[in-house]
Amino acid sequence: MEKTIVFIDAGYLDQISKYFGGGLPLKYDINQLAITIAKESNLWCEEVFYYTAQPYQDPQPSEDQKLRRKRHDNFINKLEKIPGFTVRQGRCQKTDNGYRQKGVDTLLTMDLTFRCSKKDIKTIILIACDTDFVPILNHIRKEFKTYVILAYFFDYKRGSKFSMSNHILTACDLKILVNHEHFKKSTKNDTNKS
């Protein structure tokens, strides 16, 4: 089988998981999910890049913030022990409307450019839906002849958090609609469950 790399926007994947979990995140193996989606396209998942941000911490963190950070760090430590699994972390910024991840898209864009420039992988899978990725996807397709598969979710509801611009669909060669079955097939073990 041809090798592939799966790039995962953790925040986006978490939203999909909560949608299928009725508001609560599903328990699944992230690495196995990447493998499952790759196999669907008859590809071998050689590497996974996972993009997230550490939980926000006040200058004087509360006990709850410390606990969330400890859980996050334990989870990331488990992921980093998986061969071929790379975690990239941005930061979390507090805003008037809650929290926002910062730097995550930039890290993903950098890795897309670097990994595709090596030209050892012909096909990549991106689990994301941000139209900010359109320029880099078009670049790697043209410059490095990389075949791009977009794995995304769409709930067909206008104005929902899953409504998306068709613009990103034009920057991909193949689209996979992520469904509940992908998560069901990805419950291999307990070591890296989301």
How would you characterize the overall build of this protein?
By secondary structure, this protein is of the alpha/beta class. The protein has one domain: Rossmann fold (3-Layer(aba) Sandwich), CATH 3.40.50.1010. It is 36% helix and 26% strand. The chain is built from six helices and seven strands. The protein has a seven-stranded mixed beta sheet, sandwiched between helices. Helix 4 (104-117) packs parallel to helix 5. It is globular. The two termini are 28 Å apart.
Which short descriptors sum up this protein?
alpha/beta, Rossmann fold, 26% strand
Describe the secondary-structure layout.
Elements: E1 2-9, H1 10-20, H2 30-40, E2 43-53, H3 63-80, E3 85-95, E4 98-102, H4 104-117, E5 123-127, H5 134-143, E6 147-152, E7 174-177, H6 180-184
Parallel strand pairs: 1-2, 1-5, 2-3, 5-6, 6-7
Antiparallel strand pairs: 3-4
Helix pairs in contact: 4-5
